[in-house]
């Protein structure tokens, strides 16, 4: 029999086996169903959440707007002081930016205006310099023409003078004068940068050029101009004056026209220019001397060989006009070529004896030559030391003033001063009148000067003018004697006054006491001596009587124009006896015209008056 407990146990085991066999499918089904449940659940959840997404976004946007509104309201609720501060800072920033902009614009405008002004001033200065040079060249030519109407004082001019240059004579050259004050000068010729090959000077070296004088001597001239327009010395103008003087007086009209295509300044008549080659100007120093050319103004051409280099022949170009043109254009290369041509021609005329002949033909020294020599001397000696003439008490008897050369020449002709006579200048200053009289007249000229500064310059001028006259221009002059002394006390004054034919006294600012002392000196003068003064010694109302019988003025008379033995310029004669007028620009202290006075020692009236008194008493 079967045990009932075993039967139940077996049934349970069978049941467990069946369950294990069925579990995979159950598990699979369960998993699938679970997935379905989860998917269904997720789908349901998404479907439930989808409607809620839009409200959330709107809520977020609303919150953002609210935040912005709150911040805006917060800013709106900013304190008034803060608003004021912000506005002030903003205004300050705007103003600062505007000020910066205005300043920048102002600086830019100022720089532009300054550049424009500088260029305008430079252009104006250039035009002014060119204009001044044009005027000076024109004036120089007109002056040389006008000088020909002035009578030349007859005298030998070269009998004691070598007509060749004197070696080792110490003269003040234009180059030395400029170098002593180089910072006051600047370059003039600037267009050579377009043709640096033909410009013979290095960039850092001042351009200088040699010019030959009528004796064969030469001088070095810097091609510079003064920075200050008021400076008197201009080396380029000095150079041009040398050339103009040489062409006017040392060449014949035919030579001036033939070699330089210039109508001669003396006659202002243009002669026909015959184009000729000039081989003599291109020869080597060892070559033979060419045939001399005629010094007359013949219409025939000089006999000269051909030039090896035709480009050196500049005879077809009017020299002075072309020099002026090259200065205007600042064309230094052309200027140098023209000066080179001038030097070649002058050298040839010297070697052929033409200029020597011309010098020996002078019957006197033309005023144009004397003024050139005097001007060169003054520029080199007095100009750099002008401070020696300053510092004297105003309107005292020692105030310095000059009579200009054209005025002195008129005085020389008025008093008919001649070679062999003696001229005395009481208060001769820098000696310019004494030296001009010695040069222009050829007579002995004596000057007395008390002041140290002018006396020193007078001595230097004496050496320079003698050297220039002899060595550069081939001329002699009368012996000048310059003495530093008080003419009211020095015994030598009386010695010279007793011999004097003409006495000059620049007493424009002399005191009455000094004029009285001077009049006492006139008692030493010989009969017929002429006294020229800037203030009268004898008035028009002076009449001889017993009270003034012993006055030194009793021996003086005032000549009328009818009693003058020489012809004078009509602008210098006044209707009042002994009173003459000088033209404008004749003295250093004014540009206006003025009066000067002439007295003559004439004792005949005094002798006659004394005779009348004796006869009346007897």
What is the 3D shape? Answer: elongated
How big a fraction of the residues is strand? 5-15%
What is the chains' assembly state? single chain
CATH class of the domain at 396-617: Alpha Beta
- CATH architecture group name of the domain at 396-617: 3-Layer(aba) Sandwich
N- and C-termini, Cα separation: 235 Å
Write the element-wise H/E pattern from the N-terminal end onward. Answer: HHHEEEEHHHHHHHEHEHEHEHEEEEH
Largest sheet: 8 strands, mixed
Count of separate DSSP helical elements = 15
What gyration radius follows from the Cα positions, in whole Å?
53 Å
Tell how many strands the DSSP assignment holds: 12
- Give the proportion of residues in helices: 40-55%
Average pLDDT metric = 76
> How is the CATH topology of the domain at 396-617 named?
Rossmann fold
CATH superfamily of the domain at 396-617: Vaccinia Virus protein VP39
pLDDT under 50 segments (min length 5)? 21-30, 37-51, 159-167, 266-308
Query: Which class best fits the helix and strand makeup?
Result: alpha/beta
Biased composition (Basic and acidic residues): 66-81
Biased composition (Low complexity): 23-34, 287-312
Region (Disordered): 1-81, 106-130, 280-312
Pfam family, one: DOT1
How would you summarize the topology of this molecule?
Blueprint: H1 4-76, H2 80-147, H3 174-179, E1 185-187, E2 208-212, E3 218-222, E4 224-226, H4 235-249, H5 253-260, H6 319-328, H7 332-351, H8 354-360, H9 367-381, H10 405-414, E5 422-426, H11 432-440, E6 444-449, H12 452-472, E7 480-484, H13 491-497, E8 502-505, H14 512-521, E9 530-533, E10 556-557, E11 579-582, E12 594-601, H15 604-617
Parallel strand pairs: 5-6, 5-8, 6-7, 8-9
Antiparallel strand pairs: 1-4, 2-3, 9-12, 10-12, 11-12
């Amino acid at each position: 029999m079967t045990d009932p407990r075993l039967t139940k146990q077996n049934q349970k085991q069978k049941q467990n086996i069946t369950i294990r066999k069925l579990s995979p499918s159950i598990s699979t089904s369960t998993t699938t169903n679970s997935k379905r449940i989860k998917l269904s659940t997720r789908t349901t959840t998404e479907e439930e959440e989808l409607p809620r997404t839009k409200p959330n976004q709107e809520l977020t946007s609303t919150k953002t707007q609210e935040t912005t509104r709150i911040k805006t309201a917060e800013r709106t609720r900013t304190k008034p002081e803060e608003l004021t501060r912000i506005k002030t800072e903003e205004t300050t920033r705007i103003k600062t930016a505007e000020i910066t902009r205005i300043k920048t614009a102002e600086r830019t405008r100022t720089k532009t205006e300054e550049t424009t002004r500088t260029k305008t001033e430079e252009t104006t200065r250039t035009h002014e310099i060119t204009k001044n040079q044009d005027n000076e060249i024109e004036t120089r030519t007109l002056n040389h023409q006008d000088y020909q109407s002035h009578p030349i004082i007859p005298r030998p001019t070269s009998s004691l003078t070598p007509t060749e240059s004197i070696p080792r004579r110490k003269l003040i050259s234009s180059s030395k004068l400029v170098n002593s004050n180089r910072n006051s000068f600047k370059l003039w010729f600037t267009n050579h940068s377009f043709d640096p090959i033909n410009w013979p000077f290095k960039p850092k070296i001042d351009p200088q050029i040699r010019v030959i004088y009528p004796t064969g001597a030469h001088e070095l001239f810097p091609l510079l101009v003064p920075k200050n327009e008021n400076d008197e010395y201009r080396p380029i103008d000095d150079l041009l004056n040398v050339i103009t003087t040489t062409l006017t007086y040392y060449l014949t009209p035919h030579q001036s026209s033939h070699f330089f295509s210039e109508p001669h300044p003396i006659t202002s008549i243009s002669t026909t220019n015959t184009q000729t080659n000039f081989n003599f100007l291109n020869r080597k120093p060892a070559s033979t001397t060419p045939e001399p050319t005629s010094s007359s103004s013949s219409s025939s051409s000089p006999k000269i060989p051909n030039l090896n280099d035709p480009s050196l022949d500049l005879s077809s170009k009017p020299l002075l006009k072309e020099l002026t043109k090259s200065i205007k254009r600042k064309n230094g290369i052309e200027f140098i070529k023209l000066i080179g041509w001038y030097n070649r021609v002058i050298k040839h005329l010297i070697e052929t004896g033409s200029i020597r002949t011309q010098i020996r033909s002078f019957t006197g020294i033309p005023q144009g030559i004397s003024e050139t020599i005097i001007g060169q001397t003054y520029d080199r000696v007095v100009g750099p030391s002008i401070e020696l003439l300053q510092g004297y008490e105003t309107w005292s008897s020692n105030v310095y003033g000059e009579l200009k050369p054209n005025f002195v020449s008129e005085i020389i002709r008025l008093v008919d001063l001649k070679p062999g006579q003696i001229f005395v200048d009481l208060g001769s200053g820098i000696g310019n009148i004494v030296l001009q009289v010695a040069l222009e007249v050829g007579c002995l000229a004596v000057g007395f000067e008390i002041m140290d500064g002018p006396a020193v310059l007078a001595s230097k001028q004496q050496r320079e003018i003698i050297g220039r006259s002899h060595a550069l221009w081939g001329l002699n002059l009368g012996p000048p004697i310059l003495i530093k002394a008080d003419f009211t006390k020095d015994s030598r004054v009386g010695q010279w006054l007793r011999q004097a034919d003409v006495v000059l006294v620049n007493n424009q600012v002399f005191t009455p006491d000094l004029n009285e002392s001077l009049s006492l000196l006139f008692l030493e003068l010989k009969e017929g001596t002429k006294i020229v003064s800037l203030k009268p010694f004898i008035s028009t109302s002076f009449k001889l009587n017993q009270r003034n019988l012993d006055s030194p003025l009793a021996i003086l008379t005032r000549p009328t124009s009818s009693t003058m033995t020489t012809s004078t310029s009509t602008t210098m004669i006044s209707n009042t006896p002994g009173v003459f007028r000088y033209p404008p620009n004749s003295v250093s202290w004014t540009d206006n015209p003025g009066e000067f006075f002439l007295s003559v020692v004439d004792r005949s009236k005094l002798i006659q008056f004394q005779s009348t008194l004796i006869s009346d008493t007897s």
